[in-house]
Amino acid sequence: MKVKRIAWISISVLVLLSMVLSGCQPGSKTVVVTEAQGPAVEPTAEPTEAPPAEKKVVTFIWTQEFDTLNTLYTNMWFVTVLYPIYECQAWWFDDKNEPLPNLVSEIPSLENGGISEDGRTITMKLRDDIVWSDGTPITSADFKFTYDMAMADSNAVSSRSPFDLVESLQTPDERTVAVTFKELYAPWLSRLFSGQSGAAILPEHILKPVFDAAGTLDTAEWSKKPTVGCGPFVFEEWQSGSFARFVANDKYWLGRPKVDELFFRFVPDDASMIAALVAGDGDVGTFFAYSDLPQLEAAGLKILNSFSGYNEGWYFNQHPEKGNPAMRDVKVRQAIALAFNREKLVKDLLLGRTGVPATDWDNSPWVEPSLKPWPYDPERAKKLLEEAGWVDSNGDGTRDKDGVELVLKYGTTNREVRQDTQAVAQQDLAQVGIKLDLQSFDSDTFFASYSENGPSANFSLDIIEYSDSPDFPDPNAVVWLCSEIPSDENPAGVSPTGLCDQELDSLFQKQSKQVDFTERQQTMYQITKRLYEQVFWLGLWEDPDLFGFSNRLQNVKISGATPFFNVSEWTLTK
Amino acid sequence: MTRYIIRRLLQAFPLLFIISLVLFILMNNMGDPLATMGGRRVTRKEDRIRLARQLGLDKPVMIQYVYWLAGNDWTKTDMDGDGVAETPGVRKGVLRGDWGISLVNRKLVTEVIGERLPNTLLLMVTAEVVVLVSALLIGIYSALHQYSLVDNTITAITFIMYSMPVFFFALLTMYIFAVNFKKWGLPYLPTVGMFEPEAGQTFSQVVWHMVLPTATLSFGYIAGYSRYIRSTMLEAMGQDYIRTAKAKGLPRRQIVYLHALKNAALPIVTIIALDLPFLLGGAIVTERIFGWPGTGRLFLDHVSRSDTPVVMGILMMIAVAVIVFQIIADVAYAWLDPRIRYK
């Protein structure tokens, strides 16, 4: 009986508690009655002050929390994409991916003397009106400091590119920065204090004392609280696991932004992001699955598709010793290209919202114009395989040659869209007698290095699939160089194919030193044509960045290289 | 008893050493932290070589373990990549309180974990209290009303709840109490985070946001614990000493709580003591689903990036807690049952 009474009391307490909590529920309005203080005052005819305007806040729904806000240490796209928001760089890139001056007064060129005659020295002239958010002028010393910090051995920065190619960085005066490369370096425009792959500027007056005291910037408090910045917005607050806030920078030299605050809400997964955007709890989201787009558009969101150089594709193992010999036969590779119906794959899995690339440089001026994606032609594929000597002599549905079955190991990460792609590819290629052995891995396992026996680096797979980009908007890429083939002597090499094609190697080396656009373009035409004809790489789908914006956001433009380049011009309708 | 406790504590050191060694070796074989350091791109060769050197990842696993444990300020490291070790190390090692820095963001491990630990303790301790109180009430009631309609209903419900996966329960409660309640115009529960950022981290906000995660964490344990308590209570209530107590005319409350429950609680003490350390590690699935910023979600985020220092920090924290709480359980056992004496 006593137990029963205790149980009923407990239940009653729980019910009362829930009633109290429902009264505390966010959104419930509390009516406050104020008593009149003193005698009533006659209303005057004078106009009263207008109530302060409501703060204009744009809410971003981010599925990945920042790792750090220090440009030299971050590894995350979810941070580098914010450079135009809270950082400053020499220039941004606009929606046509043309350079747009930010810290510099004009883009360096041969005509204005910004590029030296030998092409190795890039001289940047800084604007006179650039200041940090605390009013301290931005000078060439900040550029030098950033370079020094990137190159300091005690700083475990995420990347030293392109500073490790620099011979010297001179600052003859406060408004001039002269960077001399060891050799001609054509990709400087997309990497030298610019772009998502390049560094933003660090405040010397804030961080030099930190470095001098600790000997390193690795553990600097500023990396998670960069309260002095130089972007249109300044960092305000970051609650780990919850949210971060950036407020408008009144001292921004290109004009104070039209919105007051950018609010970043960290959610655990894509489903939460979609729910928040559909419910109107967020204004900006990204990295959607294509299957979510109809729901987002039905909820009134604008979807902007921004090509940033990434293409999903297959890399075929060309290692002379470790690869399957079948993959080194161009007829087999061409047959694979003809047998895999990628148009249908894109239509079914990606709802036709993107295209099939012919090369990894599609949607840029660097692709030979006649190149179109390999068509779907299984009959031609079968003919090529027969010409290469692959026939199904034992009637098991899989072709063979000299007693060896044509079974190819195909690996990728375990993202859902890739799992689906594997299944489709297996079916398509089975129609022409090629059997695919499917394997999938976690990302950090898949992309582990040669010394860690990573599957994408040890040439144990015949086909590997992932999405990569050249140094967009620059066409430079190093993965096709012979010097990048991983081995016991060179375990950190990044070549995914093990290909050492002398023609390609020399063409890639040549283009990286060609400063003249037309000459470089011609070299790239040769490169793209060779890669296409030899099918060393097969494009599956163009992989643009998808952004969703609520319909109350206006004036939004997106750049492939620096997506939020015009954030200070965004406005809110309500 | 004091000698017993001291002996157990001394035995803990070699045990922790073995645990740390095994975990460290396992973590180093679970992926390459440098693989994802290029961000969306594959890590550049030059950066991979340099970062391996700067972060000490180019050393053999056992050397890395020694540096993790005892630091490297007693030796020199090659920071400039010329093959000559000229720079004194800066790490003091775990034995001197330096848990290292995160490979993901270079923050101090203690800072990374310390930011999330209070959030986890808040959620897990609340869930544990709810579990204990509810399980005791339900278990005792069921035992005292064996085979009644209420007891049979409770039995059915607990079996269903015990069988239900945590994620399914979480998604079900989200669907009912968040999505549908909102649709029906009823007060609805939030599903993400600890508080609404616009409202700030107030008491009512946090409590409101805790309802669904706490319920998700509790339901399975309530089901399991209540069955244990029911079973042990039934056994205790059937003992001769209880019949004697009843014959002597002791009040029912005294019989149930003083005599029966005290003996029935012994196995529960062990189970609870084994569960308590895992409060520190958080609930990975629940925190992930509800976006609760705790150590469970931290663990998931950092293990997927092979961030050995942070993962070791969390795992060793749990290992120490397991050992300490086991000792506490043994002491509590002895207090509950005077027949038990440790030498």
Structure description:
- The complex is a heterodimer of chains A (574) and B (343).
- Chain A is α+β, with helices and mostly antiparallel strands and 574 residues long.
- Chain A has 15 helices and 21 strands.
- Chain A has helices spanning 2-24, 77-80, 83-86, 140-151, 188-191, 204-214, 270-278, 293-298, 330-339, 342-349, 378-387, 416-430, 443-446, 502-511, 517-534; strands spanning 57-62, 91-93, 99-101, 121-125, 166-173, 176-181, 233-239, 243-248, 261-266, 284-286, 302-306, 311-316, 400-401, 404-405, 407-413, 435-441, 463-468, 537-542, 545-549, 553-554, 571-572.
- In chain A, the strands form 7 sheets. Chain A has a 5-stranded mixed beta sheet with strand order 16-15-17-12-18. In chain A, strands 1-9-8-7 form a 4-stranded mixed beta sheet. Chain A has a 3-stranded antiparallel beta sheet with strand order 4-6-5, with helices on one face.
- In chain A, helix 14 (502-511) packs antiparallel against helix 15 (517-534).
- By secondary structure, chain B is mainly α.
- Chain B has 13 helices and 2 strands; from the N terminus they run αααββαααααααααα.
- In chain B, strands 1-2 form a two-stranded antiparallel sheet.
- In chain B, helix 4 packs across helix 7.
- Classes of the chains: A alpha+beta (574), B mainly alpha (343).
- Chains A and B meet through helix 1, strand 9 and helix 13 of A and helix 2, helix 4, helix 7, helix 9 and helix 11 of B.
Contiguous uncertain segments of 5+ residues of chain A:
18-47
What structural category do the secondary elements of chain A indicate? alpha+beta
Content-based structural category of chain B:
mainly alpha
Helical amount of chain B: 55-70%
Helix fraction bin of chain A? 25-40%
The helix count of chain B comes to 13
Order of helices and strands of chain B: HHHEEHHHHHHHHHH
Shape of chain A: globular
Quaternary state reads heterodimer
Q: Mean pLDDT of chain A, as a whole number?
A: 90
Biggest interface pair, counts: A-B, 71 and 76 residues
Radius of gyration of chain B: 25 Å
